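Whiteboard transcription, Tuesday session. T.W. wrote the structure tokens on the left side:
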């Protein structure tokens, strides 16, 4: 009787522990995604404005930087769209049609069974 009770309590403890860990995992995943988004924004902003003489101390300079960044970002997404469409249109067979024998074998196993 003590063994069954201990087993049930152990299952409840493990279930509670798993629920708490799942909540922590969701928070960790969110934190990692947020850090990744911040790093992506910083690096892409730096790359897109490299070599441009922009004054960040004025409102017009910040607006110009924003326009340049979002224009660059739109170009990146346009290029990714084109790349994805090109890759999707490719022939991704695992064999070469010129090598595969297209003539059926007249003495196949199925014709012998008839």
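and on the right, the sequence the group agreed on:
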């Amino acid at each position: 009787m003590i063994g069954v009770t201990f087993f049930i309590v152990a299952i409840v403890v493990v279930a509670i522990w798993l629920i708490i860990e799942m909540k922590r995992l969701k928070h960790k995943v969110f934190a990692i995604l947020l850090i990744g988004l911040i790093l992506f924004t910083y690096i892409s902003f730096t790359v897109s404005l490299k070599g441009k003489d922009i004054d960040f101390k004025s409102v017009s300079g910040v607006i110009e930087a924003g326009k340049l960044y979002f224009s660059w970002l739109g170009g990146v997404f346009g290029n990714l769209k084109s790349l994805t469409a090109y890759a999707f249109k490719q022939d991704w067979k695992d064999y070469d049609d010129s090598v595969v024998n297209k003539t059926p074998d007249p003495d196949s196993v199925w014709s012998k069974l008839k």
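Someone added at the bottom: The longest helix spans residues 2-48.
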